[in-house]
Amino acid sequence: MKTGLFEEIRTALRGSETRILMCPPYHFDVRYEINPWMDTRNRVDRKEAWKQWKALYHLLGGEIGAKVELVVPVAGLPDCVFTANAGLLAGDTFIASSFRYPERAREELHWQSWFESKGYRVVRLPPDLRFEGEGDLLAAGDLLLAGYTFRSDREAVERVGRLLRKEVLALELADPWFYHLDTCACPLADGSILYYPGAFTEEGRALIEDRFPDAIKVPEEEARRFACNSVVIGRHVVISADCPVVGSELRARGYKVHEVDVSEFLKAGGGPKCLVLILERKGVRAEQLDTGRPLRAMRAA
Ligand code: ARG
Q: Which of 166, 95, 165 is nearest to 135 (CA)?
């Protein structure tokens, strides 16, 4: 395996092809309950939340080399730290979220005006459709993996697929603890995915198994620590702490695994991936990962 400065530079260059959006947790708190993780009596330790968020920010922008853009948080919008739910980016088009719950619907204008001010073309779905951005729609190569039921509507994710002319694999979510797709599935750079089978209906599981025979099945214990809510940037996977089974499986497949403590954000039902929105990602293919170790075969499809 190549090591040393040369490898570090290659790694940084790869990361720099990815631009992400984060929002500092100035106003982050648990002030309402819109998923089973949230309990307003279980208050956030603000100092600790800052420490955890900063560690993630420095890891992504430092060693991993992603370009991190920041959006200024708004008082009274405690969940806007979870930028993944702002919407979905496709080139210069921003497909804006329209949140299920009024508590988060108040973020919509904030996100839309931020993207407008940056010159993006902002697209809104018809008002009767609920859509929560990258929380429920994740690019897996040319495919869009979608989750629906608790937050996004099936019709919404399918509409986004038509808009982007991409095939959508729509998966019904069955467990309210895994209310967004990014809490129970995560596309990897080699074309495979991580997923927690217990979060999906039988039909959803069958669709995944058929499409991703090589997927990593996340054990329940680690799924509950948000192992699926990982940030994948090329060969780097940033994973919630204490997920050793998934961590070693990823390492065996040639990934560099970085653990981060996100315990304060778990109180709101969020992990590392929820804190990140992908603004731009240049395709990193398995053969470009160049980890010195063979990656397992890509999915057959
Ligand atoms: N409290 C937030 C909510 O319930 C957490 C969002 C987490 N974001 C995510 N992409 N899963 O909406």
A: 95
Three-state SS string across 55-120, please? HHHHHHHCCCCCEEEECCCCCCCHHHHCHHHCEEEECCEEEECECCCHHHHCCHHHHHHHHHHCCC
Per-residue pLDDT tens over the stretch 237-292: 999 999 999 999 999 999 999 999 999 999 999 999 999 999 998 754 433 343 43
Cα of 149 from ligand 1 centre, angstroms: 14
The number of the ligand 1 atom at minimal distance from the alpha carbon of 179 is: 11
Tell which one of 22, 85, 130 to mutate to probe ligand 1, the residue whose CB is within 8 A of the most ligand atoms.
85
Catalytic pick among 184, 186, 228, 274: 274
Give me the amino acid identity at 277.
L
Rounded Cα–Cα distance for residues 135 and 180 (Å): 5
Element (H, E) at 245: helix 244-252
